[in-house]
Design goal:
With 271 residues, the protein is of the alpha/beta class. It is built from eleven helices and eight strands. It has a single domain, classed as Alpha-Beta Barrel (TIM Barrel). It has an eight-stranded parallel barrel with strand order 1-2-3-4-5-6-7-8, surrounded by seven helices. The radius of gyration is 20 Å and the shape is globular. The structure holds 3-methyl-2-oxobutanoic acid.
Length: 271
């Protein structure tokens, strides 16, 4: 007799309960089936199909070029892999900024064609109307404030945001506006840890930080960065848990040597 154990899925409510219980939330980006399966089985709570796929999967300099069709392709692969984690998908640049109808149409495609569990979009008060419309259709929305990479050409650099009081006050107001609009959680990217701590303690929804210090409700990193697939990218907030680029290069160089020398395949590696 085989015993089939149901895996308890992470939902938006699980994340709210985790914040209330003071349990930290772990989130990582994922863009493909094989890696998403590994991350999910390792116990990551939330998998974000980030528009950072534009950088790490496609080699673009910014997140702007990735299309809705490409996000749906990545998201559907991740959804197929996952048994436990909540899968959140970024609405890419140009798929929601026009108006709330466009935001809802893009969201519907992500939910229908990829089977995602929630969407994330960047911005504060200016995207509230879109958030409300998406929520009205029954889709949970995660907000994203601080460094918002889709606005890179407005800001000009990827440096820490909201160091000045006026910008910090605006960010706090935006966080409350997103909570009131109904967002289930919020990402804060690259802002001072003191400000992130204030936001996390003044809103009820979970706040997930990236470069926002430890006094928030959870952390998110880009999977390629934390596994060390790109040694050129070394921001202060990044902790590398592996140096996978070296490991892969060494393994591949070994394979090339074995092919050239005739060592591979051996007699036991053929029919
Ligand atoms: O696209 C992404 O990877 C993100 C994270 C940095 C939060 O939005």
């Amino acid at each position: 007799m085989s015993i089939h154990r149901e895996v308890k899925r992470v939902t938006t409510h699980t994340l709210t309960e985790m914040k209330e219980a003071g349990e930290k939330i772990s989130m990582l980006t994922a863009y493909d089936y094989t890696m998403a399966r590994l991350l999910d089985s390792a116990g990551v709570d939330v998998l974000l199909v980030g528009d950072s796929a534009s950088n790490v999967m496609a080699g673009h300099e910014t997140t702007l070029p990735i299309t809705l069709d490409q996000m749906i392709y990545h998201a559907s692969a991740v959804v197929r892999a996952v048994q436990r984690a909540l899968v959140v998908v970024d609405l890419p640049f140009g798929s929601y900024q026009g108006n709330s109808k466009e935001a809802l149409q893009s969201t519907v495609r992500i939910m229908k064609e990829a089977g995602a569990h929630a969407v994330k979009l960047e911005g504060g008060k200016e995207v509230v109307e879109s958030i409300v419309r998406i929520l009205t259709a029954g889709v949970p929305v995660m907000g994203h404030l601080g460094l918002t990479p889709q606005s890179i050409y407005k800001f000009g650099t990827y440096t820490v945001r909201a160091r000045e009081e006026a910008e910090a006050e605006r960010l706090m107001e935006d966080a409350h506006a997103l909570q009131e609009a109904g967002c289930f959680a919020l990402v804060l990217e690259k802002i001072p840890s003191t400000l992130a701590a204030k936001v996390a303690s003044s809103v009820q929804i979970p706040v997930i930080g990236i470069g926002a210090g430890s006094a928030v409700d959870g952390q998110v990193l880009v999977m390629h960065d934390m596994l060390g697939l790109n040694s050129d990218f070394s921001p202060r907030f990044l902790r590398r848990y592996l140096q996978l680029d070296q490991i892969i290069c060494e393994a591949v160089a070994h394979y090339v040597r074995d092919v050239r020398s005739g060592d591979f395949p051996s007699s036991s590696e053929q029919y």
